[in-house]
Every structure is written in C-alpha cells, then in structure tokens.
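Same chain as my last thread, 379 residues:
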Amino acid sequence: MRRKSYLRAAVLFAVLAAIAGWQIKREYRPPVLKAGVRLYAYIANAGDGSVSVVDLVALKAIATIPVGPIPAGLRVLMPRKEIWGVSSLSSSSGDAGYAWVISADSGRVSSRISVGPFPSAVEFSADGQRAYIASSGSNQIVQIDTATRQIIGRARTGRHPWVAHLTPNGRLLLVPNRNDSTLGIFDAQTLAPLASVGVAEHPEQVVVLPDSSVAFVSAADAKEISVVDLKRNVLLSNLQLGGAPHAMILKPDGGELYVTVPDLHAIEIINTWTTEITESMLVGLAPESGVLSANADALYLSDSAAGRVLPIAIGARRLALPIPVGREPVTCRMDPSGELLLVANQESNDLAVIRLRTSSLITMVPVGSHPTEIVSLLF
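reply #2:
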C-alpha cells in the first residue's frame, strides 16, 4: 500500500514538473510561428566585418556571414527577402565602398555593388524597386535598381553627405551634407536637385512628419535640431538643446519627437505642431538609441553607460523599472511582431532578447565583435 502511494506521488510529481516546464517554456520563448515560418535577427558586427544571424524562435545564433569592413546601414527589403547594408572600405581597393545584399533564404551574400567611398546607409522606395545610398567620399547619391543591382541614377550632393532619407509620400529625397551644413532636397524619381537649405552645423539624421510637410534635422556639433519646411524649402527654426542629440524617435502620428541627449542624461521632447521643445526628462546615465512600442504608449531607451534598457510610459512621462542587459547597449529594435525587444551590446558582444509583455530579459545570445545595428525579418 505504502509502495503504491509512493508510486502515485512520484507520477504526480513528474506530471507537475512537466507542466511547469512546459509553462516556463511557453512563457519565455518568442511567439509560436506556423511551420516553415522563420523569425531571424541580423546584427552588423563592426569589429570583425560580419553579420550574425540569430534565430529568435530557437534563441541561438545560427550563422556568421562575412560582408566586409565596418558593416553599417542595415535595411530589410521585404518584397525580396533580402538584407542590405554597406561597407565603408573595400578589401580589394582599400578606398572604394560598396553595398552588399544578403539573401535570407540562402543565408549568403548574393551581390556586392560598388557605390563610391564611405557610403553611409541604405534607403528604399516604398515599393522596394529602388535603393538610395549616399557616398560621403565622392559627394554623390546613387540610385540602384534592386532587381538588377544596377546603378540607374547619380546626383552630386554637398560635401560629405550623410544618410539619404525619403519623405513618407516618396516624392523627395533628403540628404544632409555635414561639411556644408545644408540639407539637399532632390526629386526621388529623377534625382534632380530641387533646393539646398542651410541648417545647423554638421547635420546628420533626418526625420519627417507623416504628411511630408516638415523635416527635423539633428546637428550634434551645434547641439541643435533644425526644422525645415518642405513645402517652401526654407528653414523655420533651429531648436537649442541642452546637449548633443543622438537619436530621434518620432511618434507614428507625428505629434511628438523624442531626442536622446546622452550628455544631458535625458530626452528632449519636441512638440512638432508648434516646433518647440516642451519638456526635458531625466532618464538615465547615457540614453542613446530608442524605439516605441507597437501602440506607441511606451518608449524603450538603451542606456549605454549603465548596461540597461529604460522603459518609459510616454503618456504619463513615468520611468518604469530598468531592464538589465549586457555591457554598452547601443541599439534597440523591435521584432516584426512587436513582442520582442532586441538590444545590441557592443562591449559584451551579445544580443539581448527582451519579452515586452513581461518586461523581462529572456536570454543573451553571443554574436560577433562590437555589434552596432539590428534588423529582423519574418519570412
């Protein structure tokens, strides 16, 4: 009798343990996908010239793809299931830069396209048929047919052009020129120059309101955000910040712009309708990159100096409990489902995977040397 009781207890314990294990696995794994569907993250590693591929369902790195020195500017071309990026130096010539293309299906580099020295990043047209890349070393912008990989247009820019940016309506291509302190405005189809607007010193990043009416241009050296009217092609104002801007995150409705200022340990909040800074919010030691949740009610910032992610209830302007990650987190990105937050930790060489529903760290996946940028693809 006693032996049967022990046996029942052992069976019950095993069943409960199995249920608990299943529940934990269910709670902390990424969303369950249909058979044959993959969810991958691609991480650019500046230290070793590679892109790491992380399976976000299995939560492990599955490939390392050599792409060339200092990979940057990662973008997903969804219609073709490709990841595009640039390398600032060519291993063969030593001074020419190129764009490279990774096929998600094969996991290999399928193309390299010479675009001129020191390219910055890749921008795609809304239909994915054209790519735009600024070459800082040759002071030009190139337009590429994404199907044939052929350069189909070129235009001269100002000195040291930075990241090219299309307006949401797809009509204008905006190019900040660092050494000229201007914003070049081009016709997106023909690359015909339309205007050059003087902005604050050494402009870098550009964000545009959803109606394509106004552009905000960050200038780190001037500690300013320039506001440009894209209907009249004139400078409206230069907004003075408390420190050098790092990242700009625009709400989907365009109503507010959040600017990370690491030197100030804060974010500056800009009312885009009135084009004025309305608030400065202390948030951490060195907030850098940021991303909004799918419904835009929460802002997640990487705090590079403290090794953590800072969740902010943006409506209430309230900082929630920080989420510890690796050393020197530099970039935050959402996965396509909006359920996972991915963080590249530059010093500890890993990818932190955070489940947003529970604001908890799921795992840290080792990647290449000095990861800097992240994109993800569901296919």
